Amino acid sequence: MAQSYKSLKEDFVSNLSGGGIWEINYVTAVAPAAVLLWSALQSRQGFFSNYGYAAFTTDFLLNVGAILAATTVYSSAPIALNAFLILPAITLYLFPPASRARQKRASQPASAIKPNESQQGQGPLDTIPERPFITHYRGSMMVVTCIAILAVDFRVFPRRFAKVETWGTSLMDMGVGSFVFSAGLISARPVLKAQAAGATSSVGASLKAAGRHSLPLLALGLLRLFSIKGLDYAEHVSEYGVHWNFFFTLAVLPPAASFIQALPYSLHSVHLIALLIATSFQATLDLTALKAYILSAPRADLLSQNREGVFSLFGYLSMFLIGQAVGLDILPRRRYTPSVALFGAKVNLQSLTRLCLWAVWFSMLLFLATSYRALGLQVSRRLANLPYVLWVSAFNCAQLALFCAIETFVFPGVYSATDKSTEGRRSKHATSPVLRAFNKNGLPIFLLANLLTGLVNLTTDTLVTGKVGAVTTLFVYAGTLTVTAKRLHDHSISFSF
Questions:
Q1: What is the DSSP string of 349-380?
Q2: Rounded CA gap, 137 and 439, in Å?
Q3: Which of 130, 165, 296, 326 to pair with 400, CA 20 to 30 A apart?
Q4: pLDDT of residue 112
Q5: How far apart are CA 345 and CA 189, in angstroms?
Q6: What digits encode the pLDDT tens for the residues 71-130?
Q7: pLDDT, tens digit, for every residue of 432-457?
């Protein structure tokens, strides 16, 4: 008997074994490489300061189109694509920058601002500055995620990039973890603001505030659940379970993290608490029957039907807390102390050094967990086990370090301003408007991406669509998301995770 179309779709994304970690690194390096070229065009030519259609199109092609290419037509040659992006950036630095007159017209420095206009936004510097490299990191992560959730249904998207069944690594497995890590990173902001204001809140008040943040995610989870069941949409049950989905995971994490933050001295040892949770969960998997239960138990009741989603919460909570620990370390303003001279400008290496140390620390722990003979653990997104937590943490710290290095050396004076208005202009000058729009509106864009993915799958036979048709569809889809994000941002609308 011929398989139904639904079962064919489910088989297309099931029982996959993933690919190598280094290939994932090469593919994802396209995002910072694209930002490097964007930054070179901006710093040397002021190309994006007068932001018209040409600048928007170039911004889109660099920061969205390059990622689309890396996951489809250039999936077998990511190093070449990285070279195509990096070499022009280097070339721009081999020639003199644009004339002073052009730079002055494009960037409109503080001296060109009228006195009354300059004074409107002046004031003391924020304790938590807006950091362009964080915006680029989160915006790029959102772009990769949105592209992958539709691209995975086409054959032009390599199966080794799709989510692994049980053991192994893949691009989409990293995307899931990066989403959680990124959410934890930004969750440090309200904590730091409360610390700066000297405010304290009870456990109940913290849980109530986190609950309000989780309500939209819970609603989206229910909407996705009823939509999939009502439309008889293809689903990969072993990913999260029969009823559970990723929105439910995201909804649970903020209240759980708020409860842990209420523990004495927890903010001074967040990453240690996270590692304790991940290690304890790994020990439970190895020393009890829990691993066998998660991987092979019959789906007889509500818990067993959703066991992957429920028990993976321990690993995702660990990632969230590690992201928060990194945020607590790098988000606060530190005294601007230039330490290295480069190209005639002094740069501050504090944030970059800290991120490199975080990346090395988690990389060493990952190597120990996966290579040490007595442990020999394997990465599993399905279990969200200790190696998965360490891999996600090491990867995201390294990605942050790359974006931070670009900002540090290309725009060294972002944080040397003495007033809020000047710093705001410098930060805006150093930030891609497209990636800023994706970062500021992550929630509606992710929802729209899911809706468009469902629409395409209900109206198109993605399994038989050729390379040209698939890439065209994905390009239109990515363009729709980008234009929507930019329009929302232009109207000062912001809904981020």
A1: -HHHHHHHHHHHHHHHHHHHHHHSTTT-----
A2: 9
A3: 165
A4: 37
A5: 30
A6: 999 999 999 999 999 999 999 988 888 765 455 444 444 333 333 434 445 667 778 888
A7: 999 999 999 988 999 999 999 999 99
Highest mean pLDDT among 127-131, 306-310, 335-339, 369-373: 306-310
How many angstroms separate the Cα of 301 from the Cα of each of 304, 309, 372?
5, 14, 38
The rounded radius of gyration (Å) of the Cα atoms in the chain is 23
346 three-class SS: strand
CB atoms within 10 A of CB 124: 8
**Which residues have a Cβ under 8 Å from the Cβ of 65 and sit 6 or more positions away?**
475, 478
DSSP-derived letter for residue 339 is -
pLDDT band at 335 (very low <50, low <70, confident <90, very high): low
- Residue 347's DSSP bridge partners are 340
CB 485, CB 438: distance < 8 Å: yes
How far apart are alpha carbons 111 and 98 in whole angstroms?
Answer: 19
Q: For residue 44, give the nearest of 111, 122, 103, 114 by alpha carbon.
A: 103
Cα-Cα-Cα-Cα dihedral sign, residues 312, 383, 297, 237: positive
Rounded CA-CA distance 64/57 in Å is 10
Query: Which tokens hold the place of 11?
Result: 């088989």
106 near 46, Cβ under 8 Å?
Answer: yes
Tokens 């081999």, located at residue = 94
Could you give the C-alpha distances from 347 to 381, 403, 419, 423, in angstroms and in order? 39, 15, 19, 16
CA-based angle 17:22:25, to the nearest 5? 105
Q: What is the DSSP string of 95-130?
A: SPPSPHHHHHHHH--GGGS-HHHHHHT--SPPSS--
Distances (CA, A) of 298 to 68, 179, 229, 293, 294: 39, 30, 20, 8, 9
Written as six digits, the tokens of 6 are 């639904």
CA torsion sign for 130, 133, 134, 136 is positive
Query: Given the structure tokens 């607590």, which residue do they identify?
Result: 328
Nearest to 169 by CA among 428, 351, 430, 366: 366
Determine the 3-state secondary structure of 392 from DSSP.
helix
What are the φ and ψ backbone dihedral angles of 169, each rounded to 5 degrees? -125, 150
Helices (H) and strands (E) in the chain, counts: 24, 2
Q: How far is CA 463 from the centre of its chain?
A: 28
Distance CA 239, CA 430 (A): 39
φ, ψ at 128 (rounded to 5°) = -120, 95
Q: Which two tokens stand for residue 151?
A: 């691209």
- Average pLDDT of the segment spanning 299-308: 93
